[in-house]
From TrEMBL, chains A, B, C, D:
This is Acyl-CoA dehydrogenase family protein. It comes from Nocardia jiangsuensis. Residues 133-152 are annotated as: Disordered. Its cofactor is FAD. Residues 131-229 form the Acyl-CoA oxidase/dehydrogenase middle domain. Its EC number is 1.-.-.-. The lineage of its organism: Bacteria, Bacillati, Actinomycetota, Actinomycetes, Mycobacteriales. PROSITE patterns: ACYL_COA_DH_2. Homodimer.
Amino acid sequence: MTVELSYSDEVTGLVASTEAFVREVVLPIEDANGGDIAVAGSDEIRVELQSEARSRGIFAPHAPVEYGGLGLDMSDRAPVFEAAGYSLFGPLAVHIAAPDEGNVHLLAHVASPEQKQRFLAPLAHGDQRSAFAMTEPAPGAGSDPSALTTRAEKAPGGWKINGHKWFITGADGAGFFIIMARTSGAPGDRGGATMFLSPADAPGLRVERHISTLDRSMIGGHCEVFFDDLFVPDEAVLGAVDEGFAYAQVRLGPARMTHVMRWLGAARRAHDIAVAQVAQRRGFGSVLGDLGMVQQLVADNEIDIAATRALLVRACWELDQGGSAANATAIAKTFGAEAIGRIVDRSVQMCGGLGVSDDLPLARLSREVRPFRVYDGPSEVHRWALAKRVVGAAKRAARERAQ
Amino acid sequence: MTVELSYSDEVTGLVASTEAFVREVVLPIEDANGGDIAVAGSDEIRVELQSEARSRGIFAPHAPVEYGGLGLDMSDRAPVFEAAGYSLFGPLAVHIAAPDEGNVHLLAHVASPEQKQRFLAPLAHGDQRSAFAMTEPAPGAGSDPSALTTRAEKAPGGWKINGHKWFITGADGAGFFIIMARTSGAPGDRGGATMFLSPADAPGLRVERHISTLDRSMIGGHCEVFFDDLFVPDEAVLGAVDEGFAYAQVRLGPARMTHVMRWLGAARRAHDIAVAQVAQRRGFGSVLGDLGMVQQLVADNEIDIAATRALLVRACWELDQGGSAANATAIAKTFGAEAIGRIVDRSVQMCGGLGVSDDLPLARLSREVRPFRVYDGPSEVHRWALAKRVVGAAKRAARERAQ
Amino acid sequence: MTVELSYSDEVTGLVASTEAFVREVVLPIEDANGGDIAVAGSDEIRVELQSEARSRGIFAPHAPVEYGGLGLDMSDRAPVFEAAGYSLFGPLAVHIAAPDEGNVHLLAHVASPEQKQRFLAPLAHGDQRSAFAMTEPAPGAGSDPSALTTRAEKAPGGWKINGHKWFITGADGAGFFIIMARTSGAPGDRGGATMFLSPADAPGLRVERHISTLDRSMIGGHCEVFFDDLFVPDEAVLGAVDEGFAYAQVRLGPARMTHVMRWLGAARRAHDIAVAQVAQRRGFGSVLGDLGMVQQLVADNEIDIAATRALLVRACWELDQGGSAANATAIAKTFGAEAIGRIVDRSVQMCGGLGVSDDLPLARLSREVRPFRVYDGPSEVHRWALAKRVVGAAKRAARERAQ
Amino acid sequence: MTVELSYSDEVTGLVASTEAFVREVVLPIEDANGGDIAVAGSDEIRVELQSEARSRGIFAPHAPVEYGGLGLDMSDRAPVFEAAGYSLFGPLAVHIAAPDEGNVHLLAHVASPEQKQRFLAPLAHGDQRSAFAMTEPAPGAGSDPSALTTRAEKAPGGWKINGHKWFITGADGAGFFIIMARTSGAPGDRGGATMFLSPADAPGLRVERHISTLDRSMIGGHCEVFFDDLFVPDEAVLGAVDEGFAYAQVRLGPARMTHVMRWLGAARRAHDIAVAQVAQRRGFGSVLGDLGMVQQLVADNEIDIAATRALLVRACWELDQGGSAANATAIAKTFGAEAIGRIVDRSVQMCGGLGVSDDLPLARLSREVRPFRVYDGPSEVHRWALAKRVVGAAKRAARERAQ
């Protein structure tokens, strides 16, 4: 027998500790503030929660050990991140929220020793936040990253960046930005991008506004950002020039999975709340949870939770083997984002009027999870990429048979 | 040939006038205020919009002619209400918003001449708003109206009402309430309810709070309301004592359909916005709207719009024939509420990040339409009622064959 | 009030007579032969059933009165065809089966007086059957009719046709063929097709084989047909040369709707059988039909039946107004074909093991209806066509605003 | 890191050998006989194929080593059974078809040494086939096993069995039967069943008929069977008296999973055929497989395949840990049966007319997989059982909190 799905005692213990922290400390704060991180106090509450997490030994489970983290691989992250995600503020509290979590991952893989010292260390320790500036308004880089229009032009001793970004999560209050800019080619080309590191207070970097969206739990907002002749020195290049799209893949595969882990936790909370409700409320001469149509909603939630988790386990294991896991992560992201939406929606439905009100957290959870079918690649783009690979392979096979 | 689906010139003209009014006057106000009627000014803006609607001759299309309305039957209301619903504020602007619209309908059918004079006349003219106080928190009257717990007890010259209601739309600022209270039997009994009319400022009637919900476009909120020894005189009984559940059906069948009409308008706006976006934006080397997966979303929206409209036409025609149309309205409501949710959701998806942001009205439309799968009977309750009738008929047929 | 959905007494009576005929005469024959028309006796049983239908005055309800039919318009056909479709053999029995029904419609609109005399008259009277030879195997005319490869070349006094067709319903035993062949242009061109009439016994016309398919109720099979230098005289041209694609639309819009009518009848039978079963069978301490999950299946069937019918009513009315009704027929066909599949599938599921066995007609109905999502244009093609028109209109509107 | 999803070299090799055998030997026979095992020669072809499998060292991968099998646990069976299931005849060919495979499993766990010698040994070696006689027509044991009506009454030296079974797979030609009969209590009681072993040729055991069903690939049919005073000696009791329902669970959990494994193989074949088609065929100016709506069908198939496999891996691992894995197997069975149906249906749709014809195996695969949503417990029953456990736990938790 080779398949093994149990976790080590260390991971199991970490999951339990994270669950306890979330239940005892984080959820009360989330609920008292309607899940709105700005209302709860943004960085003030972040520092407080992260300090408590640190003292409980559950801080930064994904970060390299040498930077104060627990060094978990992707497989072991799955149950821990899900436990943290049970509260909308949980990921922030244990320092695994987007985009910092993905940026830690990226810097650990690509940054130079000096860059690690200057940017990764304070980020991993929670001393500052970061932003990842890739997405642009139409017709720029969105679902199709090759449309990248932000330009970096060589200048003496560095580069001058001009461009317009949006949906830059956490930009407001970030200590530094990782900026994706085109250093060669034209919008539409599949290469020619470079990543740059820039302090947030550099002249020419402007956070214009928070874009108001359905979700409110992200610290630092989803922002619109402008670069006007932003200068970055040569040593600000992250990795190699023109290799930005490849690094983006390094970041995006795992980042997709950690998103699913976290939101799965939120979906489980919605399900737990709804099940607790229907197990108690009565109607039509019965406990609601004993009525067949409600049982169907409950069972479908269980199925969606189990399938999302099983696909996550698969994709994480593939990532841990060192491959790109492009199909497995696309599948887990697409199914997961849709399943999570369904789970929360059914939970709302099970609770009726209460479900659409703020007397329970379900209404806000339904707002929070909706964008996930768009963020990190809409379902349509993942399906398109998947099908292209599958049909492409079939075309090649046919050509080979024909020879 | 007997089937006829065209509308008279009068109705066609009214639709066009309503569309023009919505486009020119109402939508700009909705959009400037993020679709939040409280932000827009509640009754102040209501009076202003209704005055303009009156001057354009499109005010109260459903109200009896003798009360200043246009006297449309259900069939003719369908296209007019849909045109008004294209803006979230449109129904309020032409005075066909819930709950006033349904209350006008109810009073026109059931009220005594004196009650019509005192309550229907000012309501129909837009001089005051009203509330319909039926729904109660668990374990009271919700999806299952027979669970009614609010009690009216006979007192000298009238009745004394005690109870607790919630999700009472428009309660804050209403001039009067129609109150559903139990005058005989016990919670769970399928009879024994009576409707009462009470001025909002009667002692013992207290609007406790607005329940915060996903939707924000309803004037006067969804409120929690208490009756503490509220006294109503004998002449406040609407119709006959103990006949409340029957009158509720008089109100609910048509009210369900007018809800579908209005929300279908909102869904159409979402669709129109999304189609306009994908017809312009480019990605993956193509106009987005020429990509197959986007075409599928567009086509499915068209199908859902057409099917909702066709089911509405059927149900309205049956109501106009004078029957209860119980199956036809349950089908149109259930299909319509779910289809409207799908239409708006696909529209959001078509617009990606923009779709989940407040830069377009789609995010708020997605919030607004979600509760409709719960309000006016959750889909599960309508399906249950439908199946009970169908299976019940099959049981009877089997018994008859067996004899 | 202008909307009118009731039928005349004549139509109502015709529906009742058709139902009685189907119940008393046709269903017993269908069931005794497992729904396989070849087993039942093909043209022998056809002649017998049609003779009985004629004597009951319900024969050929769609055919022009001057050719012995009842001359119903599309709107009035809907309930009559649905009643006939309640048995898989019902449409054949009252002479409204594909492809004859559509061919009668086409010839009545396009044929010359001589052609009507020679082809339409015997067809309308049920003296001979016909075939419509359009579909070709890949890479020819299939979902995309413009791929037409069969060629007709001018010869002295007529045309010489060469080509390869398949899925030609009813070809085996047909008296004559309507043949779609390219008279100009090349495969891929959107014009250049002509329709020809040919007796089935003309030299060069060869019915190669029956294609075995999931459905078995079609008389004369779905056949593969070859034309090898088939000569047809000039007077065999149906309508004008090069106008074949336009005539195909004349035939296809209504033919799509009559397909939906007939299959809706079959779906209703499946539903009725399943409801009768669950109203009687017990399990889990209850009548199955009183269990919530079964109620949901029952209700969803009712919804799908009602929506299909409502969309049919709309599309037929539009066709009766004389327009192309392209959107309305595409919507009714796509929704209808999918809904009919769902209805039968749920009916199977409600009956469990019995449902997948031939002890009930449900298993065979599930086989019979599956191809309808492919025949007459797959759902994907209708969605594509719908979206193209909608997005195209939005593009034009944007261009106009830009000017 | 603890999660491990790779297989040993032995298992990987076995999968490859099984794939080769299926491709080279089994598929040609399946296709030449339209997937109908009776047409192919039933036990004659079975013996031939199994002999070849034995010589290739891939026979009976699940059977205990001491009985000539390869002794794989559930986890390792998953990829091997899926490889075999790629052909409808593959499971029979390597001797892992239902019901023999589940019966081997059951006897290995429950049978006495003498019973193993007499029944398990010849069964495991493929020398005879077996049947599992549990299901009864309504109102007997079906979805609800507690409705068991077949009775075994004590007689001198043994038991006398009377009852009526149906859907007894493989009954025609089986060497022996495992019979579930009630030894105490009444229909509706959740206990009181006993399993008995009986040779097929015992007097009083009568195989009445094959029930014609949508699926045709099962050797020995789905049969209706009668027991009329069938005598079995005391030593024919399998395990202990009155423990039959518990043993049924021992058999059913794993049997459900092996069903999913096999049908997943069949679904993958359907997908592969469809992808190969759309990668080659052209329409609408494109390769079909490059059109967005087709890409969506391809991607959804990939997602369904991956999710089914991932849920299988989870459930098998839980079974290998020795638990009942009741939730995990219910989830994998329910999701799997529905996903497999969707995969085959989409594959049919991708191929259009060809898809519903017997020119490709897709039409027959669509018939074959449909009953799986009913067999081994309809989806509704699994959902009900799942929800009961989940809601039950929530009720208990609420009671505990209340204390």
